[in-house]
Amino acid sequence: AQTVTQSQPEMSVQEAETVTLSCTYDTSESNYYLFWYKQPPSRQMILVIRQEAYKQQNATENRFSVNFQKAAKSFSLKISDSQLGDTAMYFCAFMKQGGQNFVFGPGTRLSVLP
Amino acid sequence: DTAVSQTPKYLVTQMGNDKSIKCEQNLGHDTMYWYKQDSKKFLKIMFSYNNKELIINETVPNRFSPKSPDKAHLNLHINSLELGDSAVYFCASSYLGLAGRHEQFFGPGTRLTVL
After folding, report:
1. Residues 6+ apart with CB under 8 A from B51
2. Within an 8 Å CB–CB cutoff, is residue B5 touching chain A?
3. Pairing verdict, β A108-113 and A60-61
4. Per-residue pLDDT at B98
């Protein structure tokens, strides 16, 4: 069974600074998908970024980018130029190819300070 | 225009009651899910339906029964509610076909409080 670990329960960053959230996972699969979701206080789950394991190039979406290290089974999220609206819980998720459901990490609560 | 909708968004009820939560998606997805998010924010899969067929049924009390009348709807019925059922329940959908991106789209969640 796959597991996803997020070792930082809480983090804070000053507005306009850069922050990196860590995620590691355990799997014997070679093909899979990884995701970061954001859950602001409104509780809506919002997709931030996705990565396909067969792609070596790290995914980027505007201020959000990932550092995907397949051998190390690591999938960290970098948020550049942090904004107050980035304050949220961030969840890392894993899905194997051909799989049917996500496995979520426990989440990291990020606070962006003015 | 809402992609995945859930009703109600808030549900307060007494122990022992029976309640239902409804979910609808208008994305044309083939798979729908129910997740439970506990007070520590941990998200756990409960059920999944693919093309109206149950494909995931995690260790969930049989007081919880999902029903999928068609591919666009997945409802959750809970019998004999208990205090420990208090949580936020999320519906989600995705497309698991070969051309799918496999990302899941979530509804706004239903906060269930059992008194």
Report:
1. B30, B31, B71
2. no
3. unpaired
4. 64
